Amino acid sequence: MSQKAIDIEQVETYKGDGFVAPEYNNTTVTEKISNIVLRSHTPWGLFLAVAVLLPVVGMLGISITWLVLIGTGIWGLNVPVGWGFAIINFVWWIGIGHAGTLISAILHLMRQDWRNSINRFAEAMTIFAVMCAGMFPLLHVGRPWLAYWLLPLPNTMSLWPQWRSPLVWDVFAVSTYFTVSLIFWYMGMIPDLGTLRDRAKHPIVARIFGVLSMGWRGASSHWARYEKAYLILAGLSTPLVLSVHSIVSLDFAVSLIPGWHTTVFPPYFVAGAIYAGFAMVLTLTIPVRKWFKLEGLITTRHLENMGKVTLATGFIVVYGYAMEMFISWYSASPYEGFMMWNRMTGQYGHIYWALIFCNAVSIQILWWKRARRSPVVLFTVSLIVGVGMWLERFVIVVTSLANDYMPSSWDYYAGTIWDWSLYIGTIGFFLFMMCLFIRFLPMIPMSEMKMVIPKHRKKDA
Amino acid sequence: MNHGPAQPELRGLIAEFENEEAIVAATQKTVDAGYHHIETYTPYPLDELLDIQHLHKNKVALVILIGGLTGCAVGFFMQYFASVIHYPINVGGRPLNSWPAFIPVMFECTVLFASFSALIGMMVMNKLPRPNHPLFDIERFRYATQDRFFLCIEAEDPYFEKDATRQFLEELNPHEVNEVEA
């Protein structure tokens, strides 16, 4: 190719203010991204990550095996806290997944072109996060081999699911969400898989990508239908993502437990989900762009934008906290009032204040432009937010259950070692899957990047 | 005309261009010259080409709408059947067909069916999957998914005439013109 002679060194160390380094054009962007998949070179950071993560995935396997053998008694669950780590982790993981859909669907509908260099990555994150999320309710039912009872299947007792229950809605919402995310992710990848098929040197690799790309040829008549289908999928995913976390929050809100029975829950959960998810996107992209030298495609400008979204969604979450406090006082219900006071000063008070620090205080540094542009600061804040959102779910699930209406049934709940090993195991599984994804599939959409490079160039100039 | 068995049938002629501007200009000239059975191949969608080739109208949205409405109906009747027909349970005289409570599952089914219709409809209308295609026999066509732009005039076009069309394409200043065998 005539344009082959590019100055890769300069691309790697791009420190400019634009959305794309000036060295990137149709040729170089294709080369850069497809080489990550097709070249045999793997950065040492990825090897190290996999070496650390494999034992953690093994721990997940052991935790699940032991759970299936012994039962949910190995967890810290008991009366009155019947919803412990399993539900906390379920809500946390589903929430993390939501940022992927936000970035790929909602930002697409809003024509935020800069999302094109992070959407594939975020969508992959969605898929693996929902996988982790799905494990928890299935294991929490106690007999996971009977989990298919959740589905409306004809059976000898003529029993059907309770259609009026949010728990059944959840089954449909989460399974639909996973399926639709997978379709969206795969469809977005078809043109890129064609590129990989055409660039692969090894015939078997070319064959594999040839099958995966379905024989994509890039015909304009195909693109026209593809674009229409993609746009409508984005339009479908947008209300879907809002419905999923709203329904998750209804699992709580439909009950009569103090602290759960509030109307603020659906929007508050959705905002928290996007907040946690954006933090996770930052946590993952910052090391990956360094390992693969992608600073020219995922630029400081991208990080800055993600920092802004994190700050904005963080404030929506803080508003949710404020409304919870206000309504618990304004409702004049002694149980609601006690619940709030108990949250702040009771046996889990330290967790509440830790969550306020993580989710409300730590993000304030993002008001400063220098902080938003610093990968180190963003990475640190994103980790703190990830922890904070987990603590938030812990506070919601546990404080309301542990101290509800009747003091005689109060108790103290804490996770056991099996709770922790399963939770950490899913984190390991998630990161492990991400490592496989960035090595074997195009993590930045090449065709979509080529679409926006001229526009970026105009804006950057 | 009698072609010998050694001479494969011609499917069309394909010209390669180096950039967006070249392919758009060439396609415009081709359409102006009266060719209708043409196709362009690009690494990413080009709005100008969709305009020139009149490709903006397609039936994808309709298929997705039908899929979505089907999903909605399936979602409703699944719940209606279970709650009203097959196993009605009278709970304090509350209505069996409690449709407001059925909405979340109906919505999820709508989105699920519509998404499958989007993927499958797009594929079927594009006649994919088709792992092999005569175009893939052209050595340079693999750049169509990378950084080059191709314009193909198909042999079924009434104006198509092998030598004249080749001449026409050569005049558009392409990088290369190739024959596509059927």
Tally the helices of chain A: what do you get? 16
Structural class of chain A: mainly alpha
Q: Which two protein chains have the largest interface (Cβ within 8 Å of the partner's Cβ), and how many residues from each?
A: A-B, 62 and 58 residues
* Rg estimate of chain A, integer Å: 23 Å
| C-alpha Rg of chain B (nearest Å) | 25 Å
Low-confidence stretches of chain B: none
Q: How does the major sheet of chain B shape up?
A: 4 strands, antiparallel
- Give the overall silhouette of chain A: globular
Gap between N and C termini of chain B, in Å?
Answer: 17 Å
Number of strand segments of chain B: 4
Largest sheet of chain A: none
Percent helix of chain B, as a range, is 40-55%
Uncertain runs of chain A with pLDDT below 50, 5 residues or more?
A: 1-5
Mean pLDDT over the full residue set of chain A: 89
Strand order of the largest sheet of chain B: 2-3-1-4
Secondary structure category of chain B: alpha+beta
> What is the string of SSEs of chain A from the N terminus onward?
HHHHHHHHHHHHHHHH
**Straight-line N-to-C gap of chain A:** 27 Å
How does this model look, in words?
The complex is a heterodimer of chains A (461) and B (182). Helix content of chain A is 70%, strand content 0%. With 461 residues, chain A is mostly helical. Chain A has one domain. In chain A, helix 5 (119-140) runs antiparallel to helix 6, helix 5 packs antiparallel against helix 15 and helix 12 runs antiparallel to helix 14. Chain B has helices at 20-32, 47-52, 60-86, 99-125, 162-171; strands at 10-17, 38-41, 149-154, 176-181. Classes of the chains: A mainly alpha (461), B alpha+beta (182).
In brief, what are we looking at here?
The complex is a heterodimer of chains A (461) and B (182). Chain A is mainly α and 461 residues long.
How do the strands and helices of this protein lay out in sequence?
The complex is a heterodimer of chains A (461) and B (182).
Chain A: H1 8-12, H2 26-38, H3 44-70, H4 85-109, H5 119-140, H6 166-199, H7 203-212, H8 220-253, H9 265-291, H10 300-330, H11 334-345, H12 349-361, H13 369-372, H14 375-402, H15 417-440, H16 446-460
Helix pairs in contact in A: 2-16, 3-15, 4-5, 4-8, 4-9, 4-14, 5-6, 5-15, 6-7, 6-8, 8-9, 9-10, 9-14, 10-11, 11-12, 12-14
Chain B: E1 10-17, H1 20-32, E2 38-41, H2 47-52, H3 60-86, H4 99-125, E3 149-154, H5 162-171, E4 176-181
Antiparallel strand pairs in B: 1-3, 1-4, 2-3
Helix pairs in contact in B: 3-4
